Amino acid sequence: MTAAAVQVGEVDRATGLPELRRSDRRRGLLVVACLGVGLVGLAVVALSVGAVALSPGQVVEALVGGPGTEGRFVVTGLRLPRFALGAVVGAALGLAGALLQSVVRNPLASPDIVGLTGGASAAAVLAISLGATGRAVEGAALVGALGAAVAVFALSGRGVTGTRFVVVGVAVAFLAQGFLGYALTRASLTQAESAWFWLVGSVGTAAWADVGRVGGTVLAAGALLGLAHRPLGALALDDDTARAVGARPVGTRVGAITLSSALAAVAVAVAGPVAFVAFVSGPIARRLRGRGPALVTAPLVGAVVVVAADLAAQHLVPGSLSPPAGLVTGALGAPFLVWLLVRGEQKKELPA
Predict the structure, then answer these.
(1) Contact indicator for 145, 265 with CB cutoff of 8 Å
(2) From the CB of residue 56, how many other CB atoms can be counted at a distance below 10 Å?
(3) Cα angle vertex 76, ends 71, 81, to 5°?
C-alpha cells in the first residue's frame, strides 16, 4: 500500500468517526423521544380508561383544575399515583437489569435470574411474617438483595463476570426460594395471603410516598452513573486493558452491582418482584439504541413495559378481578428468555 493510500485511509477514519458519533447521538435522542411519547400516550390511556371513563380534555381539566373539578379524585387520587408508581418501578428495574448485564457482560445477568430479586423477596416476606410494614419491609428487602449480592460476589471469583456469575446467581436464587418458603410457613393465613399477592408483583396499591422513594432512588442512581461514566466505559475493555489505562474494573463492577441491587430492592419492596422487567429491558434498549450505551434507554423501556402490562391486566384480561401486572410481565418475559437462550445456541452453532 502506498503512502498516499495510507494517508487517505487515515483521513477517512478521522472524518468518519465524528459523523458516526453524531449518528449515534441522533439515534439515541430519537429513541428516547419515541419512548417518552409512548409513555405519555400510555399516561393518557391510564388516566382516561376505567369504570369512570373520561375524555383527554376532562383528564387535563382534572389535573389543572380546582378541588371541585369533576373527576379530579378519580384522576389524581386513584389513577395518577398508580401510573406514576408503575413508571418509577419499571424505570428502577429496567436500570437495574441493564446495569447488571452491562458490567457482567452477560444478557442473562439480571436481578430476576441471579438471585438479587429473590433475596429481596425472601427478606421482605420474612419481615411481613413478623408483622413489619412500610419502611421496615423496604429495609428488609434492601438487606436481602445486598446479602444475595454478597453471596454471588463471594462465590463468583475475583473477576465477578461471565457465565460463572450467572450460574452462581441461579444457585443463590434457589437458595432464596428456600428462605422464602420458610418465611411463608411462619406467616399467619392473613399474612401469607398478603405475601402471596405481593410476590406476584403489583402496582395497584400506590402511595405518593412510595413513588417518591423509588423515583428518588432512580434519580440518585442516574446521577451516580453520570459521574462514573468513564470507569463504566472502561468495562467495555478486557480487565487487563482497563487496568492499563488506569481503571479499576473489579471495584467498578462491584460498585455497579451493588447499585443494581439497591435499585431492585427498592422496587421490589414497594411493588413486589414484577417478573422479567429487569431482564427484558436491557436487551430491548440495546436493540433500539444500536451501538450506544443503553443505560438511559433501559429505564424508559422498563417504565413502558410495567405501565403497559398494568393497563393490560386491568382492561384486557377477562374476568371480574384484575390480575397483578406481574402476571402479564411473567407471561411475556418467559418466552423472551427462551428465545434469547435459543438465539444464543444458534449463534454458537454457526460455522466459523
Answers:
(1) yes
(2) 11
(3) 140
Architecture of the domain whose range is 75-339: Orthogonal Bundle (1.10)
- Of 264, 214, 238, 222, the closest CA to residue 93 belongs to 264
pLDDT average per 10 residues of sequence, the chain (352 residues): 46 58 81 92 90 82 71 83 93 92 82 85 84 78 85 75 80 88 81 76 81 92 86 69 69 84 86 87 85 82 93 79 79 74 52 38
- 212's grid cell: 417518591
Element of type H or E holding 259: helix 249-271
In this prediction the pTM is: 0.85
Integer Cα distance of 259 and 97 in angstroms: 11
- Angstrom distance (rounded) from CA 123 to CA 142: 8
Tell me the three cell numbers of residue 275.
417478573
User: Which grid cell sits at 249?
Assistant: 474494573
> Coil, strand, or helix at residue 155?
helix
